[in-house]
């Protein structure tokens, strides 16, 4: 115990001398010994479980924390690791010393991490701190991470894949009712965030230097603060001269998209503009010669979206999920213009939309307005065509929202009719082929024919769900079946559906809902396909009528059909 008392006194004297000396923050040489003393005392408090030591350490650490924060703007020594060590003490013993750690944590994010997020050592230590205290932070300070998720995204984007795994362990804590929607936008725009940060680094020097001298000379943290000040207050940043770099600087500082991306705190949804010349030129330049950081961001963003959508499907309330879908529909055509990234993100967006509709079919009816708007844009671009195709499938699969949403189903049916008649009346499959190459024309016709097949199927399915629109469906499909201006696959499918509609029981089984509505009884002739794994399926075309039991009604056995030699089967 005597040796422990000696250790206490040595490290306490180090804390006391630094707490009294106001010049320690400008003395980089004192930083390592101070950090070592703070960590050692925290460990001693845990191992010795001494209330006396905790009471003696706390006042010194509180003074050092406040002084470090107040002098951080002109300090020559980094403070991130030191403040994290002190914060660990506050969280561990805050209840004993009556210290609320919430203001200290927010001060760390605002004053320190906003300046040192580009320092890999600080970033790694921050994630380790958040992982160690994950449960305490989520329970005691549930709004902390959702408030500062833009800063954490900036940190992971700049430091790259090396911190991806620890960041994914922290990621669920970023999601809250107030951050759920804007977080999606930030994840999709993660590559654009890298472009903005690299632009700042190019015009203002390194964000954080590797040595103390470069940190002192770097103007990039101040540049970030100035950019945020311009975004919030409208004040302008001083001109940097008439050279060529001033144009690059203005192109980013005047662009609202970049300004909104560079913020450190969540302030809700903001309108992001994708048409400004400065933003388009910066993105094109970054694609032509992508940096390693940008390449890593292009890989990480889809992985983060996987986790985000998984949490959204299982842990987020219905209202937020419903509010997210229109944002997905809008951003489907507004992504970072890199082919592989765009493909991976769009695939995840569409998968989530379909999964959400399967989980809550009423969303199809609730969101009929944005769905109809996207159907009207079906031929604007290939990605919009694919989105419209998937929406047509969802409309038909879920009967326009279900039996209780007849008005919405009728409006969706009319939109499908309009999309179908536009092609029949104007021969859209042939429009523009003369000005396109043969390969482009073939791809375009194939894509539009595929869309029309889905439209025809959706019309037939809605008519099966809602019998009141069945006469109009017959007319629509009849026009397609008798038309020869469409692809053969389209009119043959329409003809097949007309034949099915003449057999209501079979039509209900093939085109009806895949599961009965809540509270309703499965109708005769309707097959519950989800039970396919547990039900025996025969290849003999018997009709099984619902509600009938007892012996079979046929008067022959299987041996009358199968040859006698085939009685022995090979397994």
From TrEMBL:
<protein>
    <recommendedName>
        <fullName>AP-5 complex subunit zeta-1</fullName>
    </recommendedName>
</protein>
<feature type="domain" description="AP-5 complex subunit zeta-1 C-terminal TPR">
    <location>
        <begin position="283"/>
        <end position="515"/>
    </location>
</feature>
<dbReference type="InterPro" id="IPR016024">
    <property type="entry name" value="ARM-type_fold"/>
</dbReference>
<dbReference type="Pfam" id="PF14764">
    <property type="entry name" value="SPG48"/>
</dbReference>
<feature type="domain" description="AP-5 complex subunit zeta-1 ARM repeats">
    <location>
        <begin position="32"/>
        <end position="154"/>
    </location>
</feature>
<dbReference type="InterPro" id="IPR055450">
    <property type="entry name" value="AP5Z1_ARM"/>
</dbReference>
<dbReference type="InterPro" id="IPR056856">
    <property type="entry name" value="TPR_AP5Z1_C"/>
</dbReference>
<dbReference type="Pfam" id="PF25154">
    <property type="entry name" value="TPR_AP5Z1_C"/>
</dbReference>
